[in-house]
Fold this sequence. Notes:
Elements: H1 9-17, H2 23-41, E1 44-46, H3 49-64, E2 76-80, H4 107-114, E3 118-123, H5 157-164, E4 170-175, H6 181-187, E5 190-193, H7 211-216, E6 218-223, H8 226-236, E7 258-261, H9 272-287, E8 291-294, H10 302-313, H11 317-327, H12 330-343, H13 348-371, E9 374-377, H14 389-393, H15 395-401, H16 403-406, E10 415-423, E11 426-434, H17 439-450
Parallel strand pairs: 2-3, 2-4, 7-8, 7-9
Antiparallel strand pairs: 1-3, 4-6, 5-6, 5-10, 9-11, 10-11
Helix pairs in contact: 2-3, 5-6, 8-17, 9-17, 10-12, 10-13, 11-12
Amino acid sequence: MTELWRLSAAQTANLIRLKQASATEVAEAALSRLAAVNPALNAVVDHNPEDVLAQAAAVDARIAAGASLGPLAGVPVTIKINIDQAGYATSNGLRSKAGLIATENNPVVDNFLRAGAVLLGRTNTPAFSARYFTDNRLHGATLNPRDPRLTPGGSSGGAAAATAAGIGCIGHGNDIGGSVRYPAYACGIHGLRPGLGRVATYNATGPDRSIGFQLMSVQGPLARTVQDVRLGFQAMAGRDTRDPWYFEAPAAPHDPRLAAFCAHPEGIDTAPEVEAALRDAAERLADAGWTVVELDAIPPLKEASRIMHLLWVADAPERIVAAAEAEGDPGAIFAMRGAVDWIGPVGLTEFGDTLTRRAALVREWAAFFETFPVLLMPPSSQLPFEVDADLKNGFAWLTEQQYFMAGPPAIGMPAMTVSTGLSGTAPVGVQILAGRGREEFCLAAGEAIADRGAPPAPIDPVSI
C-alpha cells in the first residue's frame, strides 16, 4: 500500500470515508513525515502532536457514530503563522509577536475545521510576510525541497515547502503580491489566489487592515494536485460575516474552452525556459480541446504592479519602515524601505487618483475576460530565484522580474500557478487568470494542463 503521507487530499478523504484507513492512522503518518523531513526544511515552525491526534480521534468518533463527514474529513492541512488559530501565536514571523496567542480562529481555520480537516501545524513566513523569500529572525529560513539553493518563495514559502515535501495534503497561504502563487511556482506545486472577497478572513489579534490590504490580500490553497486545490478552495470559501468583502459567486455559466496567452506583454522579457513552459502549457490546453489564441498585448500589467505597491505602502510609509527597522530583519527592511523608496512620496490626491485609476483597470480587465475567459501568462520573468537574490540585485530589479506576480492583485481577480515540470532542479509552470468570481475557470484550465504532464511529474512529494 502507498504510504499514507504520499496520498492526495482527495485520495485521503476517500480512504477515510471508505474506512480503509482511520483519521488517526493518517495523522500518525503525517506526523511521522513531518518529524522525518521538517528538520531539513524548517517549513513547519509550530505544531502540537497531541492536538493533531485529538483532532483525528474526533473525526474517527464521528465516523463511528455514523455522523455526516465534511469533504476534507481527516485530511492533514497546514496553516500559515500569520492568521489566527486559537491557542497558537499569530507571529507573522516577528519576534515582537512571538507571544501573541490567538483566542479565536480566523474564518479560514473555522472553515477548514467545518470541512473536517485535521490541522497539522503552522508554516513559516518572512517577517511581516513581505518577501518572495522565507526567512525571519524568529524561526529562521525555510529551504526549498526541490533545491536548497533556490528560494521556496514567499511569503507562503513554509506552506509550499511543506506541501511539496509531503507534510500535509493542502497548505494554507495568503497573497497580496504573489505570496500563494510564487511559492507554488518555486516549489513545483499548484496554488490558487482567489479573487477579492471569495474567502473570508479576519484576525481578531490585530486591527483592521488598511484599505490597500483589504483590496488586495486574499487567502488561498496550495496543493500537489489541482483537484486538491479545488477542494481546499471550496472548504475555505465558506460564508463568514466577519469579512465585509466576502461574497458568494454565482455558478460559472459554462465551461469556457477558450483561452489566450501572452509571453511578452508591454515588452516584458522572459527567460527562454519560462517562455517555453508557457508555450508548452498552451499546447497542453489545446490538446485538451480548448481553443487557444496567442496575443501580442493584454491590459496593463506594469501599471497594475505599481498600483499594487503604492496601495501596499502609501497610507503609512514611515510606520512601515519604522516597524521593519524595529524588528531588525534585513529582508523586511529591504522589502519595505525598497517599496517606499520605489514609490516615492504619495499625497492624498495621488492616493485618491490611484484608487480611481485602479477602478478603470478593473473595468478594462473585466472587458478582456468577457472576450477571453482564461488568460495564460508566465508566473515570473525568471526561473525561481536563488536564495536572497533580492538583497543581491536590488528592489528595482526585483519588480522588473515580478510584474506577472504583482500586477494581478491590483485588479482583484483570481489567478493560479500550475506546475508543469522541471528545468534542471528548478520548477517551471504557468499562471492562469480569469474574471471575477471565476475561480473555477482557473481550476478547469489548470486541471487540463496538469493532467497532460509528462513523467516524472514535478508534483510528486519530494524524497528527502
